[in-house]
Amino acid sequence: MATKEFKKAARIILVGAPGVGKGTQAERLMKRYPQLSTISSGDLLRGSVINKTPLGLEAEAFIRAGNLVPDEMILKLILNELKSKRWISSQSSVTGASPAQPSQNPSASFILDGFPRTATQASRLDSLIPVNLVISLITPVNIILSRIASRWVHAPSGRVYNTDFNAPKVTGKDDVTGEVLTKRVDDDEETWKLRLKKFDETSQPLLEHYDRKGALWTVKGNSSDEITPKLFQELESRFA
Fold it and tell me: Is the pLDDT of residue 96 over 70?
C-alpha cells in the first residue's frame, strides 16, 4: 500500500456499531498515513493501573469497588498522553477555562479510540482538545449479523477467522496450531441485535453533537474493502 503524508494535524474519532470494522479501518489508516497513531483510552487506563501511577491507583480503587472510572479521570489520562508527546501545551489542564491549543504539526495526528462514547463525554473532550473529524461508519445490520454468524475464533490466541472472507486453511482448525476453532459465547443473533439496538440509542446524541460542530462525516458500505477507499479520499481532501 502506497503511503501519503498529511500537511496538517488530523484529530479523528471513528464511530460505528459493533462488528462494523472500526479496528480494520484504523489499521489501514495508520498504514496509509505514517504520521497517524492511535490513542486508546482503554490502553492508557490499563497501563496506568499496571504501572501504579497516581491516576492508576485512583482508577484501580473505582474498578475494585465495581464502579466505572469517572470521565474526568479518563480525560486526565488522555491529556497526560498528549502532553507527553508535546502535542498540546504542558500548561493545559482538564479544568482549564478554554480548550488546549493543539499542535498543527502533521505528526501530531491521532485516532482517539474508546472515548467519547456519549454526547456528555464529547462536550467534556471539546473543552480539552478539539477533534476535527468524526467518521460515522455505517454497514447494514443484516451484513453485520451475517459476519458474526460466519465468525470463528481460536480462543487461546485470540485469532479470528471468518468463513466468508478470512477462512482458515483447514475448515474448523486454527492455521497455526491446528486446534479446533470455536464460537464466542455471545456471538448469537439475538445478543447482537440487542447490542446494535443499544449502540443506535447511545450513538445518536453523540453523532448529533459532532454534526452541530461541523465535524461529522458519514461513510456507508457493505464491507471494509468498500469503505476504505472512500476514507482515504476524504482524509486526503482534508489533510493531505
Answer: no
Distance (Å, whole) CA 236 – CA 125: 25
SS3 call for 214: coil
φ/ψ of 11, rounded to 5, equals: -120, 105
CA 212 to each of CA 29, 208, 221: distance values in angstroms, whole numbers, following the listed order = 25, 6, 24
| Dihedral (Cα; 122, 215, 207, 107), 10-degree rounding | -60
How far apart, in whole angstroms, are the C-alpha atoms of residue 231 and residue 214? 17
The kind and range of the H/E element at 167 are none
Determine if residue 86 is left, alpha or beta; phi over 0 gives left, psi from -120 to 50 gives alpha, anything else beta: left
CB 88 within 8 A of CB 129: yes
**Antiparallel, parallel or unpaired: β 133-138 and 109-113:** unpaired
CA-to-CA distance for 7 and 69, rounded, in angstroms?
A: 36
First-to-last alpha carbon distance for the chain, in angstroms, is: 16
Instruction: Give 173's DSSP letter.
Output: B
| pLDDT band with cut points at 50, 70 and 90 for residue 164 | confident
pLDDT score of 97 = 55
Residue 48 Cα distances to 55, 59, 180, 194, angstroms: 7, 8, 36, 32
Grid cell, residue 236, equals 486526503
Residue 45 and residue 52: Cα distance in Å, rounded?
Answer: 10
> CA 88, CA 131: separation in Å to the nearest integer?
13
